[in-house]
């Protein structure tokens, strides 16, 4: 019986050893699983952090897109306003150009009128001068202030027999202008 007893003991011992070996293997597997689970947990944490960062970046991108769209709208509005202002300024410039052309034409007409008036004035002054010379030569001479009778000089004499009256002379500009007015 002892053989049977010893044999049973050996078998029990072998079974316990095998059981211990299995427990060790389970421990190794658990450690390996824990290590692997730790790595996965670490990777999962990294993935969660990366996902949060991606979400934050997406939020920032979305906000920047909204701001860019707002800026684009503002820019388009300003561009349209600038276009309208530029068109308005061009219209004003065209009007100013037309006014300048009209003023230049008016100045040209007035300069022509002034030139004609100056030419007419010169002609009138010349006619007035000739008329005054003609009157001086055809008018009767005045008697001397002493009361002596007038004696005509001999033909060819160099002394002047006509003494003009002390009134206004035709050289006076106002008199010439009046003469010009009446001659026209």
| Global outline | rod-shaped
**What structural category do the secondary elements indicate?**
mainly alpha
Strand content: under 5%
Our count of helices gives 2
Radius of gyration: 65 Å
Distance between the termini: 176 Å
The total beta strand count reads 0
Biggest sheet, in brief?
Answer: none
Indicate the percent of residues in helices.
over 70%
Give the SSE string.
HH
**Average pLDDT score:** 80
Which spans of ≥5 residues are poorly predicted at pLDDT below 50? 156-170
List keywords for this structure.
184 residues; mainly alpha; 80% helix; rod-shaped
Structure, explained:
- This protein is mostly helical.
- The chain has helices at 2-138, 173-183.
- Helix 1 packs across helix 2.
- The longest helix is centred in the middle third of the chain and has 137 residues, at 2-138.
- The radius of gyration is 65 Å and the shape is rod-shaped.
- The N and C termini lie far apart (176 Å).
- The model is unreliable at 156-170 (pLDDT under 50).
Brief account:
By secondary structure, this protein is mainly α.
């Amino acid at each position: 019986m002892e053989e049977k007893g010893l044999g049973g003991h050996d078998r029990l011992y072998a079974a316990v050893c095998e059981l211990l070996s299995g427990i060790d293997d389970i421990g190794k597997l658990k450690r390996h699983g824990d290590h692997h689970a730790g790595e996965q947990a670490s990777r999962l944490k990294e993935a969660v952090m990366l996902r949060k960062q991606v979400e934050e970046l997406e939020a920032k991108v979305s906000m920047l897109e909204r701001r860019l769209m707002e800026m684009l709208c503002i820019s388009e509005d300003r561009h349209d306003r600038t276009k309208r202002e530029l068109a308005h300024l061009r219209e004003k410039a065209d009007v100013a150009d037309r006014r300048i052309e009209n003023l230049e034409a008016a100045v040209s007409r007035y300069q022509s009128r002034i030139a004609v008036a100056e030419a007419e004035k010169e002609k009138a002054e010349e006619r007035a001068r000739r008329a005054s010379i003609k009157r001086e030569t055809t008018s009767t001479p005045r008697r001397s202030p002493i009361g002596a009778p007038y004696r005509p000089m001999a033909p060819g004499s160099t002394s002047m027999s006509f003494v003009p009256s002390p009134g206004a002379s035709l050289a006076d500009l106002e008199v010439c202008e009046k003469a010009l007015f009446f001659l026209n």
